[in-house]
Amino acid sequence: MKEFLAKYMPPDYSAHGAELDAINAYVHWLMLILFVVWGALFAFMLWRFRASRNPRANYHGTRSHLSTYGEVGVAVVEVILLVGFSIPAWYRWTTRPAPDTNPLEVRVVGEQFAWNIHYPGPDKVFGKSNIKLVSSSNPLGLDPNDPDGKDDIFSLNQLHLEVNRPVIVRISSKDVIHSFALQQMRVKQDAIPGMEVPIHFTPKVVQKEGEKLEITCAQLCGLGHYRMKGMYYVHTKQDFEAWLRQNTPAGGAPAPAAGS
Amino acid sequence: MPKRQLRVGTQWLYVDEAEKLLREAMRIQAEEQKKLEEGGHVQPWYRRWLFSIDHKVIGIQYAITALLFLLTGFTMMILMRWQLAHPGTPIPLVGNLLGSANAPGGIMLPEFYNMLGAMHGTVMVFLAIVPLAVGAFGNYVVPLQIGAPDMAFPKLNMMSYWLYLPGGLFMMLSFFLPGGAANNGWTSYPPLSVIGTGQTWWLIGMIFLITSSLLGSVNFIVTIVQLRAKGLTYMRLPFFVWAQLVTAFLLLLAFPPLEAAAFMQLLDRVAGTSFFLPTGLVVSGAPLEVAGGGNPLLWQHLFWFLAHPEVYVLILPGMGIIAEVIANNTRKPLWGYRSMVGAAVFLGFMSFVVWAHHMFLTGMGTAISAFFQTTTMIISIPSVIILTALILSLWGGAIRFTTPMLFALAFLPMFGIGGLTGLPLGLAAADIHLHDTYYVIGHFHYVVAPGTIFAMFAGIYYWFPKVTGRKMSDRLGKIHFWLSLIFINGVFFPMFIQGLAGVSRRLYDGGAQYAHAQPVLHLNKFMSYSAFLLMAAQLPFIWNFFKSIKWGEKVGSNPWQATTLEWGATTSPPLGHGNFATVPVVYRGPYEYSFPGHEFDYYPQHVPEPEAPPPAAPGGGGIQQAAVAQREN
Asked: B45 versus A234: which is more confidently predicted?
């Protein structure tokens, strides 16, 4: 079943995705078995109890209690899926990676109809922003006097990630509700104005040559919803660090001496 | 020309005068006859057909209005499906009629696509299915099935309809206003719905519709509790009445929060409040001048607190119709009637504590998501019980494949697919990938389209003879059924495949922008052409419906040989105001088909038991034994 579903699903390149896909496959097994069993019984009864074959109906119908066992069985399987799989998976999905795994932090702020990507830069501290400062050249309203912001990296619709390094994406929105979805990372989170929600995942596979990985908007956000598309890239450690160096603003303070 | 004279009584009259008097006499006689039928008072035409307080007329008004809205909502989707199959190409035939603000050169604009999307959902849920299921079937059938002369509050009933109609018209007319209709999805999530265009009239329309539903729900509850015929205990109610009773409670308890929320959103739009707007919004590069401090998620909670019970409002009356049709066409009682009633009531209660499963991806922690996943899994059990009981009711039956029965039978596997595909969406971990994709669209359309709408068709074919005294054509009905069944699956099944591929819902170009959608993009054409053919498949129904009103085969009062009160206890169509010539008394359960020892294979609820036979005769013992056996069941 997992292979069958995978034929239609985008490839999974994340650390947690295999678990989610497995749960999805188990549920689809349950669905398939129920549908086939019910369907077969249903088809048999239509044939067996058609009026031309069975002109006189039986007032009592079936006296079997199999259906009760069936219902209990469905309930038990649902409890197993819930307690054994879905709730623990959700717990793991929402647990923040430990600091010693050196997670990459990045802010993603949706707006009609683009994704603003904001890296804290080498100092690992996001610069402060203020909506009064928002302009076309400063879409997030970053405070130019904030030293923490000097080394921050911005991009529009381009999210760069490092393979095997946990990512914490802080998701928010400037205007309306969007939904930040990375299909191959099995990640989706509504971007809600007024809230900043962190999500975490770890890319496991370096992007292949020519492969397109997209940021999808999954929540209706206006007339440009259908084209609110970004790209994300999964690099090797060296490539990612090179990209980081290249894009760190020249005037940006280098990392404030570690430990200070 | 000499005038001849006639002697009338003691008077001699010219023939033309005599003729005039005769006509007058006949008119008076006809009027008195009508008065008798109407229960003592003659109404002018507009009181009889427009502002009627008779539940049957109101039911017909609801039915016709709701069916027109159903066609309207379907037509909107046909336009959208053209755009999805052939993005950016002019819509043939009608494209140029849509106006240059919506579709310049016949090519649909994204704004217009979003309007059609929002209005398709709104029209289908609030203007078509619920009014058809509750307003039409509930109104027409419930008083007849419980042996009542009318609803408890006939004028309130009239008012329900006359709030529903303007509410619907406001919604439709908003297409012609500057800025067009609402275009923020039927869910109307703020801030988009507050800062966007077109939403004000949607909210005003909703306030009308909600008020209408609230009045209706009170009326149904009081009617079912107070006006049941003598002997019609709760456990003798047809399942359809139970379904309507639970539905009425859902409407009564779930709609007020949405009405409040609609007022709040209206104030956010027109009075500058910020119930749903947080501080610090920046729209199109400029800060939005609002007070702020609100929360967009508050709307989602209020909306889904209604809209999840609303799902059961959509499905329960359908299940009720299916139960009636299945019992009648298997010629045996429903299997597990009591557990079905219990499941329906439990479903009603549970439907109030599952709403946040629509919001798993708003940033939910483990505890809250565990709670809502658990309630969601729990609510699947009563649905399983009802569906199992309906399927097992076939066991031992003598199944007649009439047109209503075909629709009822198809409902079972179709609703089954709809219900089963809800499972991965209800488990939050599996939902992450599927949330907001076409998988969701496929899931709820299987519940509502080949589910509820098929149930509605079953109901129309089943009760049409009751309303008109004539039957719809069986041959046209079967053509309608088979074509609809094939094409409706062609529309909705591929949605699961697109959903697994991760194609988002509400995309103007059907996903053409996205690389991950490319492998499944070709399905858009398949689904669209299935939808066009599905629309063509409704033509036999429309023709059959109107043709049969005038030329359908005339039938007696009980053409299906049914047991419930609306059939045997009154004529088809029922008497004017008052329904029953003699007030029926109920002696037994609703589905006493093939009752052992009874002469016919149906034993109507209102037929008294035969005179007790002499003690020595064995016949009576058979009946008693059977009654005991039934209690054991």
From this structure: A234
Most distant pair of Cα atoms in chain B: their distance = 103
Give Cβ neighbours of residue B400 (< 8 Å, ≥ 6 apart). Answer: A51, B329, B330, B331
Nearest CA-CA distance, residue A208 and chain B, Å: 14
pTM of the model: 0.91
Q: How far is CA A210 from the centre of its chain?
A: 22
For B529-584, the pLDDT digits (tens) are: 999 999 999 999 999 999 999 999 999 999 999 999 999 889 888 877 788 888 89
CB B87 within 8 A of CB B50: no
Please tell me which of the candidates A9, A21, A186 has its beta carbon nearest to residue B501: A9
Stretch 417-436 of chain B: residues touching chain A, C-beta under 8 Å:
417, 420-421, 423-424, 427-430, 432-436
Q: How many CA atoms lie within 13 A of B299 on its CB side?
A: 25
Which token pair is A215?
Answer: 């940021």
In the structure encoding, which two tokens stand for residue A8, read together? 């239609």
pLDDT in tens, B230-272: 999 999 999 999 999 999 999 999 999 999 999 999 999 999 9
Instruction: Sketch out chain A's domains with CATH numbers.
Output: 2-94 (1.10.287.90), 99-247 (2.60.40.420)
Residue A223 CB-half CA count within 13 A: 12
- Residue B382, preceding bond cis, omega within 30 degrees? no
Q: Do B504 and A216 touch (CB under 8 A)?
A: yes
pLDDT of B6-44, one tens digit each?
A: 887 788 888 888 888 889 988 888 877 777 666 666 678
How far is it, in rounded angstroms, from Cα B264 to Cα A130?
Answer: 28
B493: closest CA of chain A, how far (Å): 14
Q: Are B460 and A51 in contact (CB under 8 A)?
A: no
Decide if pLDDT at A254 tops 90.
Answer: no
From B532, B549, B530, select the one nearest B473 (Cα to Cα): B549
CA–CA distance from B633 to each of A60, B341, B626 (Å)? Answer: 8, 15, 11
Q: Is B220 left (phi over 0), alpha (psi -120 to 50) or beta?
A: alpha
pLDDT tens profile A187-243? 999 999 999 999 999 999 999 989 999 999 999 999 999 999 999 999 999 999 999
Interface confidence, given as ipTM, is 0.94
Q: Which residue of A has its CA nearest to B364?
A: A94
As a whole number, the mean pLDDT across chain B is 92
Residue B502 touches partner A, C-beta closer than 8 Å? yes
Fold of B45-278+293-554: Cytochrome C Oxidase; Chain A (1.20.210)
The minimal CB distance from A90 to the residues B369, B392, B630 is found for B369
CB atoms A41 and B633 under 8 Å: no
